[in-house]
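Note to self: keep these together.
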Amino acid sequence: MFNSLHEECGVFGIFENKTTYVSQTVYLALYALQHRGQEACGIAVNDDGVFSHYKGGGLVPDVFSHKRLHSLGKGNMAIGHVRYSTTGGKDMGNIQPLVIRHIKGNLALCHNGNLVNADEIRKGFELSGGIFHGTSDTEAIAYSIVSNRLKCKTTEEAVEKTMGVIKGAYSCIVMTATKMIAFRDPNGFRPLCIGKTADGAICVSSESCALDTIGAEFVRDVQPGEIVVISNEGVQSIKTHCAEKSSICVFEYIYFARPDSVIDGASVQHARMRAGRFLAKEHPVEADIVIGVPDSGLDAALGYSQESGIPYGIGFIKNRYIGRSFIQPSQEQREDAVKIKLNTIKENIAGKRVIMIDDSIVRGTTCARIVRLLREAGAKEVHMRVSAPPFRHPCYFGTDIDSSDYLIACRHNTVEEIANVIGVDSLGYLSVEATHKIAEGAKVKFCDGCFTGTYPLPVPEQTSKNKFDQKLGNFADYYQTLD
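Structure:
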């Protein structure tokens, strides 16, 4: 496990009614979705059935120079992806979009989520002679679509059959020679929405903030289980897999999504403020200032302040040139990394009773270092409030929580013990009941399996072990030196 949660992936696609440099639009959209994945990115462009693509490790502006974007050429549709690996590790062969050439034509695929039966699907194809080039769930989806395409008249029919086999979380965009097809798992674990530009281009995006960036109008969310087919004939909706039960990951509202996004009818920023308000009701404490840990703790801190009447203030300044917390080779360098990323405003902290709001406590080590920064800045008291319940169980649907062994809430029996470990005067978590109320106006229900251990889908027992063993192999040295 890591010290903090990590983002998922972000997908974007655009279908134009003319040939243009669509890769530039996708580039801007991926920039807006960068928070969902910072390890790698890629873009595939379709020019009348001829595909060009490029992908690489790193941030969007590092991978795509102006020259590189221009080299992708013109087209009438394109898809793009930003990646954070939850399965498949950091193998460069797993960077998306996956571009496949098969007997029925070219196909490109972007995927956000995690399958719980990917190993089973993969094994079936391998026993039949299939050759996989990477280790991600996405390749299992692509193989399934291509296999079904040989037996179906259209790609959307192949997607429909594939959705009857794959289980878990997936929000996907498929690009063929003539169509762009978006589909979302029946539970709707990960977000997906549709937009439209002023000149009539249709867009599909993980979040609405990317639509805003390119000047597109939000049209609607892709419904859980829905297949949306975009072609020169217009937009077609297939709802054979739509079910009444939905279970979007509640952490899309608490942490993953950008605050300016609207997901399934609910404002992310508003949801975080409501979480803070509920925290103030459930865990009041006398204090002089309420601060948030940037970035996802800020809105919750504002909500806590408004509900409690305790003044809101800025306690930390975040270095905007630092992305996700990075691994350093020594303990001393990891201590320095926290100070590089965050610095306190001592004038707002010194001599005060501080309420610090954050979105989660995973392992607890980073949290303890942040608390220590407040103590060093002269805080008289530090009371921590968390805008989510304690993590006690693994996630199998894309969130980077693979093993309970490294969760602080599993290693310590009480909230008081956890408070003592991270060095705060008091600690309060948002209740599970309140968590289900934060996304006011949401058209979906939520998955809270990482809090309760109750999952909306059956989960094979070996899934967690396989994922954890792989990640443990990648980061064994890191784990051994943390404590």
